[in-house]
Design a protein that fits this description.
Blueprint: H1 10-18, H2 26-36, E1 41-44, H3 51-63, E2 75-78, H4 82-95, E3 103-106, H5 112-121, E4 125-128, H6 130-138, E5 149-152, H7 155-160, H8 164-173, E6 179-184, H9 189-198, E7 203-206, H10 229-239
Parallel strand pairs: 1-6, 1-7, 2-4, 2-5, 3-4, 5-6
Length: 250
Amino acid sequence: MKFADLGLSDELLGAVTAKGYDTPTPIQAQAIPSVLMMKDLIAIAQTGTGKTASFVLPMIDILAHGRRRAMMPRSLILEPTRELAAQVAENFEQYGVNHDLKMALLIGGVQMGDQVKALNEGVDVLIATPGRLMDLFERGKILLTGCDLLVIDEADRMLDMGFIPDIETICSKLPANRQTLLFSATMPPPIKKLADKFLSNPKYIEVARPASTNTNIAQHKVPVDSRKKREVLRHLLRTDDVSTAMIFAN
């Protein structure tokens, strides 16, 4: 299967080709057609599976039709950290090079002025961390009633960082008939509860990360009398001039 088989526009295929890709990863092949058909989606996938492009690419084609309005983003991508948000923003810029779409990045650690200015001018996609988004929402700087597409990325990390209450609040402010995409490496009960509450008849996808073999790890077996284990261990550490070590014991 090639990217050209997934239903993406010629403009988007050109951007994908320019980045050197022609064959989608398993999650991209399964997710992209469903997103283009405006279905809700639950995707269980780890970092390294190509999951970011699996929602960024179809979003660009969906957003190519429509008009942006001040303070009312047309779509929203939630990320747990500003570093991840910045990475997604970079992907959006690269893949959207042939489209006239505006993006705003709402993250902590930077001045709000430029972010508010971008919102006032109107954006097609808003990429945000929950904390900064809630801050601007409570200040009356953003309206979520025009957001028709929501992506909750790294949902299990959101759970670990205590963002689930914020996400529930954000979801309650969005249109009820929106499209929602949820990506997570695992599906613990609180994430399943979130999905059951805010997604409508979602398509479920689960893909494993491709197995990789480290080439810089050597394995050795050292037969030794149980009474001499510590002595042999000290000898090995001294002989190999080990500066750092991790020792597992039972």
